[in-house]
Amino acid sequence: MKLTKRLLSVLLSLVLALSMLPLSVFADETKTFEKVYAAAVEDGGNYLLVAHSSDGSDFAVKAEGDSLTSQPVIVSNDTISVNDEELIWTASASDEDSAVFTNGGRSISRNGTDISLSSTEPVQWDYDGSALTSTQDSYTYYFRYIDGSFLADTVSGENVVLYKLVTGPASDIPEEQNILEETAVPEETAASDEADAAEETVTEEAAAPEELGAGLPSQAADGTVYVAFTSDVHNKTGDASVTRLDSWINTVTQSLGTKFDIMGITGDLGPSDGGQTESVFWSEAQKVINKITNNANVVNNGFYICGNHEWSPGNFSTTSNSTKQYYSTAGTYYEGNGYILYSVGATQSGAQYTDTTKNALRTFLEAHADYA
User: Is 233 helix (H, G, I), strand (E, B) or coil?
Assistant: First the structure.
């Protein structure tokens, strides 16, 4: 099948016209949003407002009729794909980190702890990369998800965060200049193979970007393997810490061009705030372990040892919590690809290393001198 210049020009004009239609025209099309970690809001940008609940689920703020409701969403590698316009909010930013969020001519309003839709009383929300807040009479109110509803609270918790539109039919269509350059038909011919090549070029330009770090090799081209370590994640309600850890893993492995062979955490996975219970500590620690286990950019999951907070409030020696089984206790080790990880974790809440622990390490090193 051959395309004349005139027909191709008409088709391109139609594509360009579609690119200028408002976002609402594509209501049935799926759009992808990426989590925003920076304290930045783009004026006119399209966003999802999402909270991560204490049970591990994620809920987006929805403008449903005259009500503000919640909609379950699935988060994968810090991205969410939806096709529901009632979930998408447009930011009217007064500065780089503050905005009013509107949907269908109505904005998100707050009256005390109540959050609702309003046509006349918009509220300015500040964003710091981990929470949306508004201030009144020297009080800071956090936009939160509590017991199945979105509310404002003066205490931080399951905070609402922003996900910004990164792909969608409107934003994926290449600019006019690029289309014309990529699909130009030579003066002397309009053969079908050239027209097909032009169509393939447009399709490639519109393809969604690969997920961060997707398809990375397990080790570098020269055989180097990377072992990563951190400490004191102290995850707690709201999961800000474990979310940052997950993002850091993806960002660094992307930069290296290879996955981590293993991710080590040298203690204190759960919260350290005063008054935390044993069960809460291990519940939050389990979220850290789950996040590392489910991250495709870590080959052999995690290597976890005790810090002082695994002992208090975690009560490591007496707890029956199943999360304890993932820890490598003092004197145990993991042999990897050309390396050994040896646990010299804390053996009590004071985190001191006993003579027994130090002598055991000395004996181990002497027996594995070939690794030195």
Answer: coil
DSSP 129-159: SS-EEEEETTEEEEEEEETTEEEEESS-SSB
pLDDT at 93 over 90: no
For 359, residues 6+ apart whose C-beta sits below 8 A from its C-beta are none
Report the C-alpha gap between 259 and 274 in whole angstroms: 36
- Give exposure, 186-203, as e/b (b: 16+ Cβ within 10 Å): eeeebeeebbeebeebbe
Pairing of strands 226-230, 89-95: unpaired
> Vertex 16, ends 11 and 19: CA angle to 5°?
130
Instruction: Please tell me the least confidently modeled range out of 146-150, 158-162, 242-246.
Output: 146-150
Q: Residue type at 282?
A: W
Give the model's pLDDT for residue 272.
Answer: 83
Mean pLDDT for the stretch of residues 106-121: 90
The Cα–Cα gap between 29 and 41 comes to 24
Write b or e for each residue in 257-287: b if 16 or more Cβ atoms lie within 10 A of its Cβ, otherwise e.
Answer: ebbbbbbbbbbbbbbeeeebebebbbbbbbb
Over residues 176-198, the mean pLDDT reads 41
Cβ density class 6-27: b for 16+ within 10 Å, e for less: eebeebbeeeeeebeeebeebe
Phi/psi-derived region of residue 268, left when phi > 0, alpha when psi is between -120 and 50, beta in every other case: left
DSSP string, 9-41: HHHHHHHHHHHTS-GGGGTTS-EEEEE--SS--
Tell me the average pLDDT across 304-323: 91
pLDDT band at 371 (very low <50, low <70, confident <90, very high): low
